[in-house]
Request: fold
Amino acid sequence: MNLPESTKATQLQQLGDEVHNLEASPLFAYRTEHHYAAVIGDGHVDAQIMFIGEAPGEQEAKRGLPFVGASGRFLDELLKSINLQRADVYITNVVKDRPPENRDPTPAEIQLYTPFLVRQLTIIQPKVVVTLGRFAMDFVLDLFQMAERGQKISALHGQLLQANAPYGPVAVLPLFHPAVALYANERKQTLIDDFQALKQFV
Reply:
């Protein structure tokens, strides 16, 4: 059942408060020490398209918003290429706090934050989930118990895969992380081309 927007907004606000006060997280002390913010998500509560990255970087943790650095600016360009704005979609990460020195999140951290992402999916109920980078792709393939688990992003990028979310059928589109495009020109064009698969959901 799709919830009213006001109910979704309230539930997402409550979720955000829970993450903000998540002292059980091994990243909580690091966040507090550096005066960072938890990065819950940003965008439309009724979005058809949800983007999922790995974890916030420094700029994101300073502002409390996902994908606001250089890779975020490129993501905005990609959205514009299919006549969308950030406000039309929902953007979040697997892990909601910045790991020190941008290291990969640990299995314990992923396990701790997973229920929050599952709740975001269930609240928003997007028609398509776009994974940004290998880490997010592997996570979502495992989360939805998809047949493509274990395959490399080089084989799956740009393909619309079918999955079952907690709320029903969903398409999954693995993409290279926008940050890769900043230092690999050939990947930039690949990402631009792959992104066009989302036009049918606009």
The chain is about 45% helix and 15% strand. The two ends are 21 Å apart (CA to CA).
